[in-house]
Amino acid sequence: MKKWISEIIAELKKFDLEVLVIICYSSFILLFSLYLKRTRIFFPNEPFFEKMLVLGIMYGISPIIPMILFKNKPEDYGVQIGNFKVWIKDILIIICIMIPVLLIAFKFTNLKAVYPLSYTARTGMNKLLIYEFVHLCYMFGWELFFRGFMLFGLSKKIDYKIAILIQTIPFALMHYRKPPLEAYGSIIAGIFLGIIAIRGKSFLPCAILHFLIAFIGDILGLIF
Question: Domain ranges in the chain?
Answer without folding.
Answer: 18-223
